[in-house]
Amino acid sequence: MAFAVYETALGTFRIDYEDDIVVYLRNLREQPCEFGVKTKFTDSVFYQLDEYFNGVRSYFDFKYELRGTEFQKKVWKTLCTIPYGETCTYKEIAKSVGNKKASHAVGLANSKNPILIVIPCHRVIGSKGDLVGYAGGLYMKEALLKIEEISNI
After folding, report:
1. What integer pLDDT is reported at residue 3 of this predicted model?
2. Residues 92-102: what's their mean pLDDT?
């Protein structure tokens, strides 16, 4: 597996990939010691992220692979059905995956999301419309929702 680190408008991000398939994408809260190897593939991934950060892209067309438990993958695939510019509650996601009482488990799955932004766990909010939990930090969640012009928070 290879990785690359990029600076973006929203901070430093790391991408891990195998055979031009993204397996990990996260913002880094500290400066990395290593920057990995940038390739044509990683450049194209970060070009798409830059377009998203600038409000001109609402979807991503690079390949990615979800690695996690079956429940986590089910939650992450459900997150991908939340349209750009809209939000959903943890309870609604729990219902969608077949257990309306699994809101906490959905939150835990979100916290393990390996491919932030692309798997849009930032679009999941609390039942009262509040911003709660985000693996990339609440400041990042708020910034992503602003990019998508979501104002009901």
Report:
1. 95
2. 94
